[in-house]
């Protein structure tokens, strides 16, 4: 029993804010869960009687028309969806989807489930049975079901079916379910939970090619933060170790893919966003190539990660120059592993047009793979809470009069 309990505790999933990164700043809380007497988690009154979820508005009808992306707060399996309901409800009683209108329900490994409700009509982008990573696109915010204006209703249910408040405060029981719940009146953080070190399944050596898939044995779907930018729409990932006995330039190739999967080189298996060496994340590219200068006897971690849930077979190869100070040349060794460079002569040396811009470029060495935008040096996913310097309070005051509910 103790082991089971410990396992359950270890597996408890923490949530990111369920809005897409491009629209994160457009959201603001309009109604928290009611703890009785219209009292919210912070003992304030940003709620209404009987409200079971957390409502976040996003800028009225024009915001809805522009599109406000809703994403999975944590990885899990889609267990219910509803779509097709009228989505400009302002009366609070339009019905459909049990009052949730167009919605998605995700079941998580820790037994809890999360609801994303009142979505825009015909924007639900996932299907029942689909496994989604943290940050996976679910749809767009709307005002379907029993809603009075555009917002998302985010609700956490225990395995028993009872609703829990993800916020921890003086009038709510701990723990918080958010990875970073933020300030009262502000927004929880937009970073996904990191699930511990990457699981290394095999070792790739100089001159070797591994043919595998990013959803085969040993693959996980719990990481989206490698340090070259967080992939809010990550997919399954599989990791390998790599090292050489000498300092030498190394070229890695990822080829033979049938979908958009990307390659990351990390200085360790921590997979926590630190220690990134370089990465190659071209959109829709059928090949990824990158080069870096390996240091003798350092164990690097190579992660192959699918974009937006994509799984694919691939060939991962390492080509080493092997001529830089080989300390122990073998008889007949003409200077290390003289593996032919398999790269096409037209291998892209700069990002291709249309490549995705990572959410936040962090600590990624200057390499062949990535030189994207960003570079503000901030921690990935950290953002100024909405309520800082009172901005949020002003917004709240403006929205109190007609804040969307249900
Ligand atoms: Zn609500």
How would you describe this structure to a colleague?
With 406 residues, the chain is mainly beta. It has two domains: 195 residues, Glucose Permease (Domain IIA) (Distorted Sandwich), CATH 2.70.70; 187 residues, Jelly Rolls (Sandwich), CATH 2.60.120. It is 7% helix and 26% strand. The strands form four sheets. Strands 1, 2, 4, 5, 6, 7, 9 and 10 form an eight-stranded antiparallel β-sheet that branches. It has a five-stranded mixed β-sheet with strand order 11-13-18-15-16, with no helix packed on it. Strands 12-19-14-17 form a four-stranded antiparallel β-sheet, with no helix packed on it. Zinc ion binds next to loops.
Search tags:
406 residues, mainly beta, Glucose Permease (Domain IIA), Jelly Rolls, 2 domains, eight-stranded antiparallel sheet, five-stranded mixed sheet, 26% strand, elongated, disordered N terminus, binds zinc ion
Please outline the helices and strands.
Layout (H helix, E strand, L loop, with lengths): L1 H10 L16 E4 L22 E4 L2 H7 L2 E3 L4 E7 L19 E6 L5 E7 L11 E2 L4 E4 L10 E7 L5 E2 L35 E5 L4 E5 L20 E9 L5 E8 L5 E6 L9 E5 L7 E7 L5 E8 L5 E8 L70 H10 L6
Parallel strand pairs: 11-13
Antiparallel strand pairs: 1-2, 2-9, 3-8, 4-5, 4-7, 5-6, 6-9, 9-10, 12-19, 13-18, 14-17, 14-19, 15-16, 15-18
This protein binds zinc ion.
The site of zinc ion (ZN) has 7 residues, from loops.
